[in-house]
Structure formats: C-alpha cells, structure tokens
C-alpha cells in the first residue's frame, strides 16, 4: 500500500496555516494542512465564549498579502467580534481557494523524522499516516487550555465550561447563578457581556489586571475605503512597531514631563482606549519600573472613578505588580460591570479557593452556590501545543524531552536543532506582538527559504546549536531589560511560563521588538540561511 506523500504538511488551519498554505502553494509546493477541529479558524473557532473579540484594531488585524481579500472584505467594528474574525478566515479560505488542501477533523498524534529518507511521517488519530519533506507547526500559541488544579473540580454537578472549549450553540445563562474563575484577557471580555444576563454573578479574582477600557465604534464604508487605499502603509507601520500595532511609538519618557503633562497624555490615550494607552503614551512603560508604576497609578485612579463601591475598586486595583507585568487586556465595560448589584467580586488572593463542590465554589469556609461555573484559566502558552504531541526529531528525541533536557532553545522561534526541516509559525521566542504581523511575515520568510532551498539543491534546514544558544541569550537579555520580567514574575505571567505549575520559567516570547526580530530574520536569509544549516552528519562507517 503506498503512503500518501506531500512536499509540506502544516498542522493547524488558523491564521498561520492559511497564510503558509497560500505562500507555499505560490512556489508550487504540494502542501496539506491538517486540523483537529471541524472548521478553519484555529483559535477563533475554539474560543467562542461570550464577548470574545480582538484586542487589536481591525485595520491591522488582517492579512495584507492578498489584494482580493483586502478589496472584498469589510470589517464592521473597530474591535471585531470573534465570529467576525472567524468569518474573515473562512472568507480567506474560500477566496484563496485553500480548502481543497485542508483536511479537517484530523488530529495529529505524532510526527517522526526519518533520517534516512529525510522525511516526516505524521501520525493521525484513527487515520493513515501522511509523509512530507517539510513539517510546519501552525498550532497556535495560546491553544492548549489549562484547568486549575483545585480540589473537587470534577465534582461540580452544574454546567462547567472553559473559555477555549465553549459550546458551538452557545450557553443559555439567563436567570442563572454563574461563577467565573480567571480574569486574564478572556475572563475580562466575558464579564461585561454576561453580567446583564445572569441572575447572580460571582467573579473569583486571584490577581487583578490593569484593564484599558475602550469603545467599539462601527467601521463605516468610508473607513474601509480609506483602509484599502492605505493598507500597505498601515501594514508597514505595524511591521515596524515593536509590538506589531499600527501606531507611532512614543518618543519620550514618562519621567521627563510634568505631573500635569503626564496626566493629560495618559488621559488622552486612555480615551483612545485599548493598546493606544500602552503604546502611545510614553516610551518607557515597558522598560522602566517607575514609569510603569506611574501608568499603574493612573489606571488605579480610573478604576476608583468608574467603580462606585470603594472596597470593590480597591480589590480590582493591582498592587502586587505594575503595568505591563501581564499582557494588558482591552476592556469593553469591564469595570462598569462591577456596579451592577448582582455582580460580586470575591478576593481569592487573601482567602483562596479551597474546593469546588458539587454545588459551587468554596472560598475559605464560605460556599458560593452556582448553576454554572466558567473557567477562563488560560493556556500552556507558546510551547503547550508543541509538547502535547510527540514531535520526534533525530535520535528519537521529542521536542518535549529536548526542551526539558536543554532548556527552551530555538533559532528565532523558527527551527530547532535536531529537528531537520521542521518549522514553527509563532514558535516560542518569537515576538510578543499583535500576532498577525509575525504570522504573515513568517509565512513569506518560509516561502523564500523553501524556494531558495529548491533553487540551491539544499535538502535539509536545521538550526545550529550555536544559533539556538545565541537566540536564547538574546531572548533572555532583551526580556530581562523589560518590566515584563520583573513585574511578570510577580504577576505569574504566561509569557514567562509562570502560570503553569511546574513549568520551568523562561522567556517564551521575544521582547526585543518585532522590527528587530524581522531584521534578524532578514540577516539569516541574506547569509544563505547559514544558521539553519547544521553540518549534516556523516554516516558511521559500517565495519
Ligand atoms: P490568562 O491571561 O493566563 O489568565 C488566566 C486567569 O486564570 C488568571 O486570572 C489566573 O489568575 C486565573 N487562574 C489560573 N489558575 C487559577 C487557579 N488555580 N485559581 C484561581 N485562578 C486561576 O488567560 P487568558 O485570559 O485566556 O488569556 C491568555 C492570553 O490569550 C492573553 O494574555 C492574550 O494574549 C490572549 N487572548 C487574547 C484575546 C484577544 O486579543 N482578544 C482574548 C483572550 C485571550 P492569576 O493571574 O492569579 O494566575
């Protein structure tokens, strides 16, 4: 029986998988995309909880590479809802005729490199294996959900949901007593959306967040016409911004202006909302603790302004870490929701959750009775999807064991030594960014790399050990120069791996700036991919 063979196999049919399929097809590579879900869309298909929407604005949260898609797609809101992003990705799949090379309901169990044939064999749950020269992960960075390790979690007799496994048909929460554990970007989006629907809402908070509120204006036909005329410039702006947003980086320090000027700048960027605050106020909110603390105090003052009950406002105000210590979430009426009489904030930092019981959640000795319990408890970020399946490289070692043994290592988050012809879209140590930018630029980089390999008869790309050591060092060096390190540690941020009990702490993302990262990628390309060409092994003589 002959085995199905392709040039490239991509795992995941989200933003990454779609972009890579399109770009590899353009250079004539026979590419197959496999995805466990029953539709394209990746994270936007999985995360269908109430309130899910982009935290990046529509104008730079989309691909720029297809004129057809740009001309024919129209966004309806400044921060598109999850279902609109999902429609966009379905539109992309249709418009670029991608579906004929996407196989859905296909869960990859393992992938093994064969040194003799220089191929990857991909094992599929309940199906025949497929083989390809190139294996590419587009499995997503925040796609391996985690449940908290709380005693009795399986005993809850009511309805129980994780934000990343939200039922397709939605959940009727009207008139119910609902509890929520988890207040990262996901939980923060849920709160204002479901608060008006439910009878009682108990929000369990362990660590408060600095939420930047925003408004969600309609996108008009004129806005779309303007965007179409300016798309390349906007995309370039985002690509040149450290965090991949189409904004002008701020030029001066929060410490070099008067109190009055600072307040006025904070105020104006707060009014613009969302990522404008973190990116456009001052140039040192991510690098200087005193500056980050000034931003923290401004947001605390906003919380006190919005939330009527002073004790609740105080509880919602982070005090154990400062601004940027966690990925800054965008709010859509988050703080206002706590003014509703039936919304109750329970502090589980001072008195922890002791158990989940059949009827609710116990905090200390107090039991909160609930009909529905929602977990917005996050993900095993950046590495979780890659270590959850067996990706087996040279000498039979899995990626999981390689990283357990040697620490997190990669060249630019693209390749790993010992894993020839394996590439990652948004692998660990890629930029902390609006992700559409590194996804698109990464797909274009890969297109050029694989075309070059074909044109130059190069059969194997494999990151050198030196390149991995260099990049691990760069990632650590640049990361440690930010408050994301000092404050992220205090806040147990996912980008340090600190949100997963037992996960070794490491910078899972590159904090040195998306534009710097892209420069490194260009240099790698200009060098003839030198650092991706580990010396090939010479076969041992047979005695
Ligand atoms: P997250 O930021 O990791 O937040 C998880 C939450 O669960 C935290 O509040 C955490 O509390 C809580 N938690 C975890 N284990 C707990 C336990 N044992 N007991 C009590 N509380 C517990 O996860 P997320 O909100 O899903 O967001 C992850 C990332 O996904 C975001 O930072 C963002 O990058 C991305 N995201 C993006 C969007 C968007 O752009 N639209 C939307 C959603 C998510 P502690 O803080 O105390 O640990």
Automatic annotation (TrEMBL):
InterPro entries: FAD-binding_Monooxygenases, FAD/NAD-bd_sf
Cofactor: FAD
Molecular function, one GO term: oxidoreductase activity, acting on paired donors, with incorporation or reduction of molecular oxygen, NAD(P)H as one donor, and incorporation of one atom of oxygen
Swiss-Prot/TrEMBL keywords: FAD, Flavoprotein, Monooxygenase, NADP, Oxidoreductase
Gene3D superfamilies xref list: FAD/NAD(P)-binding domain
Entry-linked PANTHER family: L-ORNITHINE N(5)-MONOOXYGENASE-RELATED
Family stated for the protein in its record: Belongs to the FAD-binding monooxygenase family.
Protein name as annotated: NAD(P)/FAD-dependent oxidoreductase
Species whose genome carries this gene: Mycolicibacterium hodleri
